[in-house]
Each structure stands twice: as structure tokens, then as C-alpha cells.
Amino acid sequence: MSPSSFFRTVLIGAWLACFGLRPAAVGAQDYIEEEALFREDGLNGPARPIADPLKGFNKKIFRFNDHVYVKVLKPMSRGYENVMPRPARRGIRNFFSNLQYPVRLAGSLLQFKFGRAGRETGRFLINTTVGLGGFLNPAKKIEGLNPPAEDVGQALGRWGIGHGFYVVLPLLGSTSLRDGIGGLGDRAVHPLSTPYSRVDDTATRIGIQALGGVNNAPGAISVYESMMDSAVDPYEAFKDAYTQTRAAQVEQ
Amino acid sequence: MTLRSICFVLGLAGGLYAARVGSEEVLAPEKKLKSGVSEIVEILFDGSPDASIEVKRDKIIATLDAKLTSDYVIRRALGDHWTELSDDQQKEFIRLITGLVLLAYTHKLNEEYKPAISFDAPIELTQFTVEIPSTMTTRNRQVPMAYRMARLKSGWEVYDVYVRGISLTQNYRSQFKAFFETKNVAELISFLRQKLSNQ
Predict the structure, then answer these.
(1) Least CA distance to A38: which residue of chain B?
(2) Measuring CA to CA, which residue among B187, B191, B157 is closest to residue A31?
(3) CA atoms in the 13 A half-sphere facing the CB of B65
(4) A136 to chain B: which residues are within 8 Å by CB?
(5) Which pairing describes strands B123-126 and B129-138: parallel, antiparallel, or unpaired?
(6) pLDDT lower than 50: segments of chain B
(7) Is A189 helix (H, G, I), strand (E, B) or coil?
């Protein structure tokens, strides 16, 4: 082969390679096989099972809670909806969300998310001042001042601590050993929770907390009923929703 | 009906339908998804006087029936048990689950405002799978959703829907798994029929 024909051959070869006309590319599969979607191959992320050694007990509490939610809380929340206008309910929801600031701050700091802690503080300051004590939420419209909620349980999860096992608490519903312990940390910094409550009078404190619970009830009951109605196994549906939600929050 | 409820309906019905819209065409996944979801939203929030909740449900199920040839979200949730069903049972199973979700989540539909839905750019998960993040907004409340789509031989198909980080496939899979610990597929279909007729 002469030097000129060799050079020409190299050029043609390079051109074919650059434009993908290699024989190997012809007929290459450009889709995934259907069967691959049905394998536990990571397409959906790893399963996140949670130990449930108290299942029998948990199911009893689950049924008890269902009874209370449907027979007591639902009628109560309907009555509340009738007397409390929607803007007032939104204001009360904002107020209680603003009160959660120390919990979110502690959760952020324990995960060393200092930027998020700063944004939380910015949101709290704006909503407490411009937002009239937290009843309005002007920070919502400010870019960067709406970080996802954090708590101590999430921080424990971030540190690599597993759930332990699943627990259904009377009235409060789904939690786990880890998140239950985290909840004690949340209580320690929450301004309305004992033992470090900023409201000394027990009756007043319980009254304020009850208002927060009842105010959230209409939305929560609606979601609860829809989940129950669409479930094949309601207990498993709630357990899985809880573990998926917490896993997503920890990963955030 | 809460915003989360709308998400659930759109997640299952809208997402599944989206997978079939224009399946003969080579559409980008996000284009297919937007088209399907917006059609379901139009049905859900049809304000005409004769559009009762029952009519809307029937319309969505009829639309799904007409366009749907397979349903990967539900099939993946059922897992290996899917192959234990005959063709007719598979079709019935999909209709039952879809009907159950629609019934459960549309009972207060008239109280809700029509949501605004935005889609972000697809995120490539693997060579042939993408995730399309979406946000549903109504009355200043936002719910994050995500549709996972795979490029199959037939085109782009939705294979999972996430509502606030909860995978519908995984949630139903865990329920079916618990059910099959003591019962079989035929009993599941019979259970679904019974539950649907009671609602």
C-alpha cells in the first residue's frame, strides 16, 4: 500500500468511526425488554422493608385508631369545617407550621445542613414578623426559603440508624422505634411540648395543641379515608407509605 | 377532595393513559405524558352540568379501556402472580384496581379547584428509563409527583408513579404480598369485586 492510499484509508476509517457507521451499530437494540420491568432490578429502587415484630398488637391499635378517626374525629372535623372559614383554617395551619421551626432547625443542624438551617431561620423570621406571628406565610413566595421539613428522626436516619421496628401508636398512627426516639428529641425543642413547654398552664397548652390537631383533621381524614377505600390491605398500605415517605425524607 | 387525592388519580389513571397516547408515534416521553395527563384533568374537571362524578368516572374508565392494552404500574405491583391470570382476568384485574382508585379518590371532586400541572425536564435513570418530575399546584398548595417511564419496543410506557416520594407500584406490591401470604389470585379478584360493589 502506497503512503497516499494508506493515508486515504485511515481518513475514511476515521470518518466512518466518527459518524457511527460501524457495522456493530447496525441493528442495535434501542429499547428495554418488557421482562426487565418485572424484575427486581433496581428500576424501582431497592425495597425498604421494615421489621414488624409487634404486628398483632399494631393491627389492634390500627383498628382502634380507625374507629376513633371515623366515629369521633371525622364528625368533629366536619363540625369544625362548618364553623371555621377556610382562610382562618389556613392561618391556623400556618401558625402551627411556624411553631415547628425549632424542630426543623434541630433536624437540619443535626445533619450538618447549615444552609438549610439558615433558610429555615429566614423563613421563621419573615413569617413571624411580616406574617403576623406566623398566621400568614409570605416566605412561601421567596425563592430558596422553602426547604423541605427536617426532624430529629430524619437526622438519626441520616446518621445510618435504621428504623428498628414498626409501631402504630394510639391516635398518632405510624412510627418506628427510631422515629419514636427522634420524636422525643422533637418534643424537647417544640415550644408547646412538655417537658420544656413555653406555655406553663396545662389547660391552655392542651387547648392550643388540640386546636392544631382539629385544624389539620379535615384534610388528614379525607386522605385517610381515600387510602382506606383504595387499599387491598389498609394496614400494609399505611405501613409501606410511612416507610417510603420517611426514606424519601431521609434521602432529601 | 384533597390535592393529594387528585395526584393519586392522575398518578394511576393519567399516568397509565399517558403511556398509550399516540403509542404508534415516536413521541418523546414528556410529550406523551403531558398529553395523557392533561386529557384526564379535562375529564376530571369538566364543569358542564351533566358531568356528574359518576359520568366522569365512567368516562375515564372508558377512555382507559379504549386506549389501554397493558398496564405496567399494576402489572409490576402484582409481580409474578400476573402470569397466573388468564387474559380476561388480567383485563378485569386492571379495571378493578383502576375503578377502586377512582372511586376512592373522586368522591369529593366537585369541591376541588382545577390544578395547574407543570413538568420538569426528564432525568435519565438508565439508558432506556427516565424520570419526569412534575408539580401539581392548586390554591397555593403544591404536591411533587414523578413519572418513571421506560422505552419498550412499543414505545415509552409509564412503569411507576411517585406521589410525594411514595411509589404506587411499591405500595400496592407490599399490599399484594401480604394478601398472598394467606390467599390466592382468584381470591384477590373476588375481594376486589366485593370491595368495589360495597362502595
Answers:
(1) B76
(2) B157
(3) 13
(4) none
(5) antiparallel
(6) 1, 21-26
(7) helix
Question: How long is chain A?
Answer: 252
Contacting A residues, span 32-91, partner chain B, CB-CB under 8 Å: 32-34, 36-38, 43-45, 47
Helix (H, G, I), strand (E, B) or coil at A112: coil
ipTM of the assembly? 0.81
Cell 393491627, residue? Answer: A59
Q: How far is B173 from chain A (nearest CA, A)?
A: 9
pLDDT exceeds 80 at position A177: yes
Q: Is A142 on the interface with B (CB under 8 A)?
A: no
Average pLDDT estimate for A94-106: 96
CA dist., res. B149 & res. A117, Å (int): 35
Q: What is the CA radius of gyration of chain B?
A: 16
Q: How many residues does chain B have?
A: 199
Q: One-letter amino acid identity for A235?
A: Y
The angle at the Cα of A203, spanning A199 to A209, to the nearest 5 degrees, equals 70
The distance of Cα B168 from the centroid of its chain, to the nearest Å, equals: 9
Q: Alpha helix locations (H) across A84-150?
A: 86-99, 101-110, 114-129
Residue B178 C-alpha, separation from nearest chain A C-alpha, in angstroms: 7
Q: Are B143 and B2 in contact (CB under 8 A)?
A: no
Using CB atoms, pick whichever of A30, A219, A230 lies closest to residue B100: A230
